[in-house]
TrEMBL record:
Keywords per UniProt: Lyase
Keyword Magnesium in record: no
Signal peptide annotation: none
InterPro entries the UniProt entry points to: ClpP/crotonase-like_dom_sf (IPR029045), Enoyl-CoA_hyd/isom_CS (IPR018376), Enoyl-CoA_hydra/iso (IPR001753), Enoyl-CoA_hydra_C (IPR014748)
Entry keyword Lyase: yes
Protein name: Enoyl-CoA hydratase-related protein
Family: Belongs to the enoyl-CoA hydratase/isomerase family.
CDD domains: crotonase-like (cd06558)
PROSITE patterns linked: ENOYL_COA_HYDRATASE
Length: 260
């Protein structure tokens, strides 16, 4: 058991929830590791035919990684954090059953990266999406640079990545990043349950094959870039600018980058 991380079984499906309001549901290495064990339990349970991933409350789905922990990481620790994240996210992406991201509020950094691993993304109108790592001198290390261009196109992805730009729920719908937008979180949660019931009722073998065909159609697999991301982020952690970006965020001041 881990406080704030829960797996709730329903009739035919399950809900994996991150509910840590003090960090806006940010992900840390222990949280990712625990989520991995919960996903394993879902995979092993033949009575679960759909998984919903969501955040607690109304303001945040997952607002990225826990920056207070990031700034203290060594390059080796950062490399490990990338590997455990890729392990979980690839596992979610390749599950035989459908996975729904029910997005409530901020979906940033690692939050958007985990949402992009899901098969279907729905959100409430207050949702905001982004990979803002460049604003703190970092990179999206959990496959964001691969999955975002696949989903919304290279030009739009670069506009978000290189500027650290957040987009609204309507823009996410227009871009094809989400399938549906609902007026508030309560309605979105209700619709997520209905969608899970619908998906759970479909033919499991056909579902598995459909997912595999779509996944294998891509030119590259997310597992191919795990080591690339880990090596890149390990290097970034050795730079002055990365520490400056993280420290400035915690001190609530503009960063002063020096290009070193």
């Amino acid at each position: 058991m881990m406080e704030g991380i829960s797996l709730e079984k329903k009739e035919g499906y399950a809900i994996l929830s991150v509910d840590i309001p003090q960090t806006r549901n940010a992900l840390s290495v222990p949280i990712v590791e625990y989520m991995d064990t919960l996903v394993d339990s879902v995979i092993a349970d033949k009575d679960i035919h759909c998984l919903v991933i969501t955040g607690g409350g109304e303001k945040s789905f997952v607002a990225g990684a826990d920056i207070a922990k990031l700034v203290k990481m060594s390059p080796e620790e950062s490399r490990y954090s990338i590997e455990v994240g890729h392990k979980l996210f690839s596992k979610i992406e390749t599950m035989d059953i459908p996975v729904v991201a029910a997005i409530n509020g901020y979906c940033l950094g690692g939050g958007l990266e985990i949402a992009m691993c899901c098969d279907i993304r729905i959100c409430s109108a207050n949702a905001r999406f982004g990979l803002p790592e460049i604003n703190i001198g970092m990179i999206p290390g959990w496959g964001g640079t691969l999955r975002l261009p696949r989903l919304i196109g290279e030009s739009r992805a670069k506009n978000m990545l290189l500027r650290g730009k957040m987009i609204t729920s309507q823009e996410a719908l227009d871009y094809g990043l989400v399938a549906e937008v609902y007026e508030n979180v309560a309605v979105m949660r209700e619709k997520a349950g209905e969608l899970a019931v619908e998906l759970a009722s479909k033919a499991p073998i056909t579902m598995k094959i459909d997912k595999r065909l779509v996944y294998d159609a891509a030119n590259r697999q997310p597992t191919d870039i795990a080591q690339r991301d880990a090596l890149a982020l390990g290097f970034v952690y050795t730079t002055h600018d990365a520490i400056e970006g993280l420290t400035a965020f915690l001190e609530k001041r503009p960063p002063k980058y020096e290009g070193r």
